[in-house]
Specification:
Low-confidence stretches: none
Strand content: 25-35%
Largest sheet: 7 strands, mixed
Structural class: alpha+beta
Oligomer: single chain
Number of helices: 20
Number of strands: 53
Mean pLDDT: 94
Length: about 1000
C-alpha cells in the first residue's frame, strides 16, 4: 500500500501535468504541487537517508521545518543541494536527486552504521579517533571529511543573477495565514503602507489546507477573496515566495525572494533570488505554529509524518498519504485529520488518543483508542504496521501511514533573534513569543492562539492597534463566521514510556531519547551543552521540529519544568539563505567597489601600472620607454627621489577629521604616545594599541586648530580605525565632547619628497616654506598660487625632505600637473607604491607587514614612544604582561646578505648557522624585502628573536618554498640616513 493522488480535490491544476525526475526516474506531477506532494502522489515514500545511521527516511512535514526530505535540485552549475522537497515548487523539467546515500537510495552501504549504533552514541567523536596518533591524518580525518555533510558542494561558477533591494512600509506582516491576511486587510483598508510576505509560492498559509468554512466559503476560497481585495489596494504589496529570515536593529528585516527558483531555465533579465532589506515602522509576526512530532520507537520510519502535514497533502494537494492511515495524537489535531480523511474516502484504521478523556469526537467509522500510545512501528523502507499499547495490552495494527500530532509550538524565531527569550506557558504547554516592544507583535497561532476564529480576530485587532498608533483612522474589521473548526488543544506527551527501538527527537542528526539521557549522565545538562553534545537542533532545520520535544524530555529527566530548562539561542537565518543572494551583484570583479584615487586619471596619463591595494587601485610604478622590467622603473624612481624629487599619490590613506572640546584628551587616550599638548600647527606620529597591548595601527595626527585635528591611518585600516574611534567615544568615554567625520574621499593628497622638494613646492605655494617658517612636522592650511586653499604637512615616509599636500579632490589632478610642471627642470618624477615601499624599507619604517597583529611597540623599536606616565590609554595595562615584554620576543632588525648579489625574499624563515630547519630552531621571519638601488644590494626587515642583541650576527635566511638559502648579517633596521639629517634640511 502506498500514498496516491485522489481522483478529485486539492488546489492543484489537474489540467496542467508536469514532468520531473527523481534519482533519474521520470514522474508526473501537477501545477501547484511541491516536489514532496508530487513524490507522494507517485507513491514514493523513501526520499532520503539520515546523517549518522543512514536509516531510511520519508517526508515528515509539509513546510520549511522538514528534516528528512532534503534533495539536490538541478544539475551542473545550477545544482542546489539540501533543498527541502516540501517547499520546492514543482516545475516542468525539474531534476532532483536524493542525498547521503551510496550507491543508491534503496541500497545504501552506509546503513551498516545502524548495526554499529552502540558505538556511535552521542559524543562518540569526543572519545574515539585518538589512537594510534598516526591514523588521524591518514585514516580518521579523510573518512570523517568524506562522511561530513549531506549534499555535495557545487564548485562550478553560478551562472545566475542575484540582486538586492530596499523596501519601506508602515506595517510588515510576516505570514499570510488567517491572522496575517486579516492584519494586512485591516491595515490596508486604513491606508497604511503594508507589505505582506510569505515563504510559500501561494499566499494563504494554513487556510489552503483547512477544510473549515469561513464566511460561507471554503477556507481556501476565503483566502482568495481577501487576497483579491488586497491586490486592488495600491498601498498593499503582496510578496509570495519570500522568507523573512532575520530581524535587525531599527526595525530592519532581512528577506529573500525566490524570483526564478521555480523555472527550469531562468531568464538572464531577472535575478533568480532577490535579497530584501525591509524597513518597517511596525511589524506583525503571523508565521503560525509548528506541529510537534511524537517521540516513540520507530517514529522515523517512512510513512510516519505529522498530522498537519497529512492534512495539507490531502486538502491542498489532493494526495492521500496512505490507503490505510493510523493516527496517533495527544490533542484535537488528530481528530480534524480523521474527519478530513474519512470525508475523502480514505480508510482510518485507528485513532489513538494518548488522553483518557477529551471532548473531541471521532468520525463514526473510525476506531478510537483512548489512553493508548504507539510504542513501535514495523516495516523496512516503508511502514507496514504499528504496535499500540493501552494499559499494558499491546496490539499490532496494520497501516501504511501514521499521522502523529504532539501539540503545537508557535513560530517565534524572529522575535528571539535579538536576545529576547521565549516564555514558557504551562497553560498552553508551549514557548510563547517574548515581549519585544509595541512595534513588533505576534498574532494568531504565533501568539499561542488555537482556534481559527481566534486567529482571524487577533490578526485584525492587532493590525488595527498598530495602524492607529501610526496615525491612521483604522476601523474595526468584521470577522466572518467559521464553521467546521476544531479545537487543537492538547495534553503534553514528550515521550512514550515503554517504547521499543530508537525513539528520535532530531530526525536529521539521528538524536534519540537515549542520547539525551547520556548527555545528562555525563553532565552536559545545560540546554546549550546538551545541544552540542548530542547535535540535537544543529541540523539544517536548526531544531524547528525537535527542539521543544528535546527540552520537554530533558525537563522530565531532571524533574523540572521546561521553563527551567529554557531554549537554545535563536539566530538568523530562519531558513538557509544562499551565498548568491547575500552577495547580490557583488561577484567577481564587482565583489567590491572599484575605488579610484582622485589622482587616478593623473597617474594613468603618466603611464602608471595599477595594482589593487586594499579597496583601492593604486599606481604601482611608472615605466618609461626603454625600461623592460618593473624593477628598472622602480629603481629609477627611488634614485630620483633620493637625488632630486618625486611625487607620489597618497590620497588612499585614511583621513579622519576630529572635532570637540574633548578631542585632545580623547586622542591622548587612544594613542599610546602623548597628544594632550600637541601644539596647533604641528603633526605627530601616533601609535594605536589594541586592548591586549598589541599594535593596532599607526599614522600621523595634525592639530589644525584648538579643537580640530586630522588623523591619518594606513590605507588598509581606514574603516577599522574609524569604527575603533566610534566605539571608544560611544562605549568607553561617552562623556568626552568629540565628533568624527571621515574625509578620505574629500581630499587629493600627494607626497612631494626629495632634496629639491621645497624648491619645487615653493613655486606653487604662496606661503613661506623655508625651514624656519615651516619646520619638520609642521601642519597647517596654506594658499596655493591661484587662490586655492590647501593643507600642507611636513612629514616623510621616505626619510627625505618631504611634504604632503592635500587639496579638495576635484582639484587633485590639476595641482599634480602644476607640481610636475614646476619640477620639470629639477628632474621630478612620478613614483608609485613599489618605490615607496623600497624607500620606507631603506629607512626602516614599518607597515602592516611588521604590524601584523602580533607585534608590540617595543618589538618594532617604538617602545620609547609609549607614554607610560599617562594615567591610561588603550592597551596600556596589558602591554606590560610578561609575554609581551619577554627578552626573547621577535624584534625588528635589518638584514644584509653576506654576498652582495644574493636575494632575500619576504616570508623566508630565519635559522642559526648550521641549524636544522624545524619549528624548534625557528628564529623568526623576513617581513619585508627589496632591492635597494641606493645601496646596490638586497636588504630586508625581519622579526628575529632578541633581535636587537644580535647585530653583527650571521643568520641563515631559509626559504624552502622557493628553494632559497641565503646567509645574511643582522643589522639595525635603518639603512639610509640613520641620523635623520635629510628630514631637517
Amino acid at each position: 500500500m502506498v500514498s496516491y493522488r485522489l481522483a478529485a480535490g486539492g488546489l492543484v491544476n489537474r489540467g496542467n501535468a508536469l514532468s520531473f525526475t527523481f534519482d533519474g526516474k521520470i514522474y508526473r506531477g501537477l501545477q501547484g504541487d511541491t516536489l514532496a506532494s508530487a513524490l507522494l502522489a507517485n507513491g514514493e515514500l523513501l526520499v532520503g537517508r539520515s546523517f549518522k545511521y543512514h536509516r531510511p527516511r520519508g517526508i515528515v512535514t509539509a513546510g520549511s521545518a522538514e528534516p528528512n526530505a532534503l534533495v539536490t535540485i538541478g544539475a551542473g552549475a545550477r545544482s542546489e543541494p539540501n533543498t527541502r522537497a516540501t517547499v520546492a515548487e514543482l516545475y516542468d523539467g525539474l531534476a532532483a536527486a536524493s542525498q547521503n546515500r551510496w550507491p543508491s537510495l534503496a541500497f545504501d552501504i552506509g546503513a551498516v552504521n545502524s548495526l554499529l549504533s552502540p558505538f556511535l552514541s552521542a559524543g562518540f567523536y569526543y572519545k574515539t579517533f585518538m589512537w594510534p596518533a598516526a591514523f588521524w591524518e591518514k585514516v580518521y580525518e579523510p573518512l570523517i571529511r568524506r562522511a561530513a555533510g549531506l549534499g555535495r558542494l557545487v564548485t562550478e561558477a553560478d551562472p545566475d543573477r542575484y540582486e538586492k533591494a530596499w523596501a519601506h512600509c508602515d506595517l510588515l506582516v510576516i505570514g499570510s495565514g488567517p491572522a496575517g491576511l486579516m492584519a494586512a486587510l485591516a491595515a490596508g483598508r486604513a491606508g497604511a503602507r503594508v507589505i505582506l510576505v510569505d515563504e510559500g509560492f501561494r499566499l494563504g498559509g494554513s487556510l489552503l489546507s483547512d477544510s473549515a468554512v469561513v464566511g460561507g466559503l471554503p477556507a481556501a476560497d476565503f483566502a482568495g477573496q481577501v487576497l483579491a481585495e488586497l491586490a486592488t489596494l495600491s498601498n498593499v504589496t503582496l510578496m509570495a515566495r519570500t522568507t523573512v529570515f532575520g530581524w535587525y536593529d531599527d526595525m530592519v528585516f532581512g528577506a529573500v525572494e525566490k524570483v526564478q527558483k521555480h523555472v527550469a531555465h531562468p531568464t538572464p533579465d531577472l535575478p533568480v533570488e532577490r535579497l530584501w532589506r525591509i524597513v518597517a515602522k511596525r511589524a506583525i509576526l503571523a508565521a503560525g505554529a509548528e506541529e510537534r512530532p511524537l517521540v516513540f520507537g520507530g517514529n522515523d520510519r517512512p510513512g510516519v509524518m505529522t498530522a498537519g502535514a497529512a492534512r495539507t497533502y490531502l486538502n491542498r494537494y489532493g494526495v492521500a498519504v496512505g490507503q490505510r492511515v493510523a493516527i496517533f495524537t495527544n490533542g484535537g489535531s488528530g481528530y480534524g485529520l480523521a474527519r478530513d480523511l474519512t470525508d475523502s474516502g480514505v480508510e482510518v484504521t485507528a485513532l489513538i488518543d494518548a488522553r483518557r478523556e477529551s471532548a473531541d469526537i471521532a468520525p463514526e467509522s473510525v476506531r478510537l483508542i483512548r489512553g493508548g500510545a504507539v510504542t513501535s512501528t514495523r516495516g523496512t523502507r516503508a511502514l507496514k504496521s504499528i504496535i499500540a499499547d493501552r494499559s499494558g495490552f499491546e496490539e499490532e495494527i496494520a497501516c501504511d501511514a501514521l499521522a502523529m500530532s504532539g501539540g503545537w509550538s508557535p513560530v517565534v524565531h524572529l522575535m528571539c533573534q535579538r536576545g529576547a527569550r521565549p516564555v514558557w506557558s504551562e497553560e498552553r504547554q508551549a514557548f510563547l513569543a517574548p515581549e519585544v516592544g509595541a512595534a513588533f507583535v505576534a498574532a494568531g497561532s504565533a501568539a499561542g492562539l488555537d482556534r481559527l476564529s481566534a486567529c482571524l480576530r487577533d490578526g485584525a485587532d492587532k493590525a488595527t492597534v498598530l495602524a492607529r498608533d501610526l496615525g491612521f483612522a483604522a476601523y474595526e474589521t468584521e470577522i466572518p463566521d467559521v464553521a467546521g473548526d476544531y479545537d487543537p488543544a492538547f495534553a503534553p506527551l514528550w515521550y512514550v514510556p515503554g517504547s521499543k527501538g530508537k525513539a528520535f527527537v532530531d530526525f536529521q542528526n539521528d538524536v534519540t531519547v537515549a542520547d539525551l539521557g547520556l548527555s545528562q549522565r555525563e553532565a552536559y545538562s545545560h540546554v546549550e551543552m546538551t545541544k552540542r553534545y548530542t547535535t540535537g537542533g544543529m541540523a539544517t532545520d536548526q531544531g524547528k521540529l525537535g527542539n521543544v520535544n528535546t527540552i520537554g524530555i530533558v525537563a522530565g529527566m531532571r524533574g523540572v519544568s521546561p521553563a527551567e530548562i529554557g531554549t537554545t539561542t535563536f539566530r538568523p537565518f530562519y531558513t538557509p539563505v544562499s551565498f548568491g543572494a547575500m552577495a547580490g551583484t557583488a561577484r567577481g570583479e564587482h565583489s567590491r567597489p572599484v575605488h579610484r584615487s582622485p589622482l587616478h586619471g593623473w597617474a594613468a596619463r603618466n603611464g602608471a601600472v595599477f595594482v589593487e591595494a586594499g579597496l583601492w587601485y593604486r599606481s604601482s610604478w611608472f615605466p618609461r620607454e626603454g625600461e623592460k622590467t618593473w624593477r628598472e622603473a622602480v629603481d629609477r624612481e627611488v634614485r630620483t627621489v633620493r637625488a632630486s624629487a618625486g611625487l607620489c599619490d597618497v590620497s588612499t590613506l585614511g583621513k579622519i577629521e576630529i572635532f570637540g572640546l574633548g578631542a585632545a584628551e580623547f586622542l591622548n587616550r587612544v594613542y599610546s604616545n602623548a597628544f594632550l599638548k600637541l601644539p596647533v600647527g604641528k603633526a605627530r606620529y601616533g601609535l594605536m594599541l589594541r586592548e591586549d597591548g598589541i599594535v593596532y595601527d599607526d599614522g600621523t595626527t595634525s592639530r589644525l586648530s584648538e579643537n580640530h585635528y586630522v588623523l591619518t591611518t594606513t590605507t588598509a585600516y581606514a574603516t577599522d580605525v574609524m569604527a575603533h574611534l566610534e566605539f571608544a567615544a560611544q562605549a568607553l568615554w561617552p562623556h568626552l565632547d568629540v565628533r568624527f567625520a571621515s574625509s578620505s574621499d574629500q581630499w587629493a593628497q600627494m607626497s612631494i619628497a626629495g632634496p629639491k622638494a621645497r624648491i619645487i613646492l615653493q613655486r606653487v605655494v604662496e606661503d613661506d616654506l623655508s625651514d624656519a617658517a615651516f619646520p619638520f612636522l609642521s601642519a597647517r592650511e596654506v594658499m596655493l598660487k591661484g587662490g586655492l586653499a590647501a593643507r600642507l604637512f611636513r612629514i616623510s615616509f621616505s626619510g627625505e625632505l618631504a611634504y604632503e599636500l592635500a587639496v579638495p579632490a576635484g582639484y587633485g589632478e590639476a595641482v599634480a600637473d602644476a607640481i610636475m610642471e614646476a619640477g620639470y627642470e629639477e628632474g621630478i618624477c612620478a613614483y608609485g607604491v613599489e618605490a615607496l615601499n623600497v624607500l620606507r624599507i631603506e629607512k626602516g619604517h614599518v607597515t602592516h607587514n611588521e604590524l601584523d597583529g602580533r607585534t608590540t611597540a617595543d618589538d618594532v623599536g617604538l617602545g620609547r614612544m609609549m607614554a607610560m606616565q599617562k594615567p591610561d590609554f588603550i592597551g596600556k595595562h596589558l602591554s606590560t604582561r610578561f609575554g609581551l615584554t619577554a627578552a626573547d620576543r621577535l624584534q625588528m632588525v635589518g638584514l644584509k646578505p653576506v654576498e652582495a648579489d644574493a636575494e632575500i625574499k619576504a616570508g623566508a624563515h630565519l635559522l642559526k648557522e648550521n641549524a636544522k630547519p624545524s619549528m624548534v630552531n625557528d628564529q623568526g621571519f623576513v617581513s619585508s624585502a627589496c632591492y635597494s638601488p641606493t645601496l646596490n644590494a638586497f636588504i630586508a626587515l625581519a622579526m628575529l628573536k632578541s633581535g636587537r642583541e644580535r647585530y653583527g650576527e650571521k643568520i641563515v635566511v631559509w626559504d624552502a618554498l622557493r628553494g632559497s638559502e641565503v646567509l645574511a648579517e643582522v643589522c639595525p633596521p635603518v639603512f639610509v640616513d640613520p641620523d635623520n639629517k635629510n628630514l631637517h634640511v
